[in-house]
Structures
1.
Amino acid sequence: MKIIIALLSLSLTATIPAQQIPDRDTRIDWWRDARFGMFVTWGLYSGLAGTWNGKPVPSDTNLEHAQRMVNADTYTYAAQAIPKFQPKKDFATDWARLAKQAGCRYVVFTTKHHEGFALHDSKLTQYDAGDILNRDLVREITEALRKEGLRVGFYHSVIDWHHPQYDYTRAKYPPYPQGNIAMTHGPRDHNRYIKYLHAQVDELLTNYGKVDIMWWDYSSFGFDGDKAWKAGDLMAMCYRKQPHIIMNNRLFRRPEAGFSMDGGADLSHPLDPKYGDFGTPEKYIPDDMDAKMDWETCMTMNHTWGYSEHDHDWKTAQTIIRQLIDSASKGGNYLLNIGPKGDGSIPQPSIDIMTAVGKWMDVNGEAIYGTSKSTLGKPAFDGRITSKGKTHYLHLFSRPESGQVSVPIAGNKAVLLADGKPLKVTTAKDRTTITLPAALPDPMASVIRLD
Ligand code: GLC
C-alpha cells in the first residue's frame, strides 16, 4: 500500500499531461461570470513610496521595482524599507469592503513580489511577515476577503531578488538589482531556488483554505516553464492541493502560451491548459473581438502598481468604468489595481475611483456580470455592447445627434437601467431602432437593456 501511495504521489508531481488537469470549463466558470476583480500590489516597496534616500526613485512607473531602480542589494534595501512597512490593524477589512462596494467579485493580491519578501508566515525564510512583523498578512487578507464573500487570488512572483540561489544570469528579466556586479557569492544553484519556490507555494496552498486563483509573475523568452521553474511539477502540485484552482499563463513566455514575440499578449489561438487558463494583457484592453482564449486585462489607476507618493496622474472614474465595459464587451475580465501605502491604507484617489465604479455597478452590474462579448459585433454608436443570451446591453458613451441608436437584431423591449423606463423601439426585420430620451442619465455610460 505504502509503495502504491509513494508511486501515486510520484506520478502526481511529474509534469502533468494536459488531459489530467481538472476540466477548465468547470474551474473557470465563476471567473467568466465575475468579469471584474481588484488587484493589490503591496509589499516592502509600498513603505518606500517611490522615495529612496529622500529623493524620488527615477521612474514614474513600476515602483514595486524600487530595489532594482536604485540598484540596492537586498540588505541595503530591506534596511530602508522594513521600518516603513507598518501595516495598521484591520487594514485588510478596508480593502475587502472597498472591493465589495466597487462590485468586484474577486481580489488578487501580492503574496510575494520580485523583492522576495513573503507576506505570509513562511517557515522557509526569515524574510517574511512572520519573522519581521510577527504577523501573517496573507491570513489577515484572505480572512477579510472571505468575510465579504470575495474569491481569493494569490499573485506570486517567481522572480526573487532576495533568494541567494535565484540565478539572475539565466533569469534575465526583469534585470537583477546590482546585476552588473558579477556573482559576488559564486555561481548560483537555481535548482535550490526552484525547491524553495515550490515549497513556499505549497505553504500558501496548504495553510489558507480555498484559493481560487494563482497569478504567476513572470517569465522571459528562452527562460520559462520547466526550464526556469519546473512549471509542470509546480502546476501539478497546485491542482493536487486545490483541484478547482485557475492560473494565469505567466509561468511561460512563448507564442504557444499566449505571448507575442514583442512580449505582449497574443490571444489568437486556444490556450492549452498545461500553460494555464487565461492570457494576461497588461495595461491595455485588446482590440480583438475574436480572442480564442480567456483573458484578463490588469490595469493601474495611475502609472505605477506599487504605491508612489510622486505619481498623481490618475485616470478618471469615467475612463476606468469604460475600460471595464470595453473588456466585458470583448469577453475579457478587468483586474483593477490599487497600491496601498506602507501602513496598508488605500490612496484617496483610488478610494474615489472604486466608489464611483461601485455606484455605476449598483445600477448597471447586470450588464457586466455573466455577460459574454457582444454577439452583435461592434456597435455603430459611441459605446459598447455586452450580451447575455437573447438579452443585449447597449452601453452609451454619448448621445448621438439623431437621438436614436440601432442594432442589427430584432428586439421588442428596451429599458434604461438607470430608471427602468421603457424606451420606444421600432423593429424592422433584423434591426431595432431605439429612441433615446432628450438627455442620457449617466455621463460614465448609460445602459439600455434590449430583450
Ligand atoms: C509586471 C511587473 C510587475 C507587476 C506586473 C503586473 O510583471 O514586473 O511589477 O506587478 O507586471 O501585471
Note: Residues 96 and 145 are 5 Å apart (CA to CA).
2.
Amino acid sequence: MSIKVTNLTKYYGSYLAVDDITFEAKKGEILGFLGPNGAGKSTTMKIITTYLPPTAGTVEVDGFDVEEKSLDVRKKLGYLPELNPLYYDMTPVEYLDFVAKLDGVPASDIKKRREEMIKVCGLESVRTKDIGTLSKGFKQRVGLAQAMINNPDVLILDEPTSGLDPNQIIEIRNLIKKLGREKTVILSTHILSEVTATCNRVIIINKGKIVADGTPEELQHKSKGQSVVTLEVKNNCDKSALSGSLKEIRNVNKVEFVKDTGDSFVFNIYGDKGADLREVISGKVTQNKAVLLSMQAKQSSLEDIFRELTK
Ligand code: ADP
C-alpha cells in the first residue's frame, strides 16, 4: 500500500499552488507534511483524495490513478479535511452509520465497524449526544472515526490537531501513532513539534515546492548549520599541540579554546554540517596523550532548519 506522487502541479487560474512535487509514502509510514500557511499542503491532500484534479503530473494510491480510478482510490482511503464537515444534529452513532453506508461498508458490518471506531477513538461517553454539543476535541475524534470507518489502508489528515487543547493534542497524536503502524498516514501541519512528536518522515513544503524530505534526524544532518563538538580534556597535556592536531582533521573548520577550568581544558570544535567528528577527535586526543574527560556533539535543531528552508 503506497501513495506515489509524481511531478504533481496545480494551478488555481494563473496561480501556481503546487509546483512539480514528487514523493512516495509507504505502509507503516506516518509522513508529516510541514510548511507555512499557503505552502500547498491542503491542495496536495485534496488531489490525493480525488477532491481536486491535478493540472499536471500523476498521483497513484495503491496503484490506482486518482483521475482514472477515483472510486477505487476513495475506497482505499480515509480523509479528514481541514474543515471537518459534520452533521451537528446527528449523534456520533447516527453519523458513523450514515458515513459507513455512504462508504459502501456492507450493511451486516456497519454496526461492528461503528462500535470499533467508537472504541478506538474514545467516543463511548458521547455516543448518543448531538455532535453540535460536543467539544472541539470530541468533534475531531468523530472526524477521525468517520475517516476510518471503512478501515482504509491510507489516512490523509489535514491539520488533525488544529484547535485542540494540549491534552486532546496528545490523545489524538497517540491515536495517529497507533494507527500508523498498520496504515499509510499523511498528515499536514504548520507546527514543527507536531512532526517531531508523531511522524517518522517529514516533507517540508514551501511555496508549492518540496524543500526537504527525510527523517527528522536526516534533516538535521542536512542542515546548512555547522556541527559543534565540545571537548574537555585533563589539563596535563600540551594545549597548543592538541589544538594544532585537531585543526588538521578533515571537515574541521575551526578549533576554539573555550577555557581552562583549573583541572581541564575545554575546546569547541566546529565542523562541516552533518559531520560526526567525535571518533576522529578521540583519536587525536589519544595521539596527543591527553586524557579525555567528556565530549558532546550538537547539531542544528530541526527548528533552525525549518526557518532556514521556509524563510
Ligand atoms: P496550505 O494547506 O499549505 O496552507 P493551500 O494548499 O490551502 O496551502 O493553499 C496554497 C495556495 O493556493 C495558497 O496561496 C492559497 O491561497 C491558494 N488557494 C488554495 N485554494 C484555492 C482556491 N480554491 N482558489 C484559488 N487559490 C487557492
Note: The domain at 227-310 is CATH 3.30.70.3190 (Alpha-Beta Plaits).
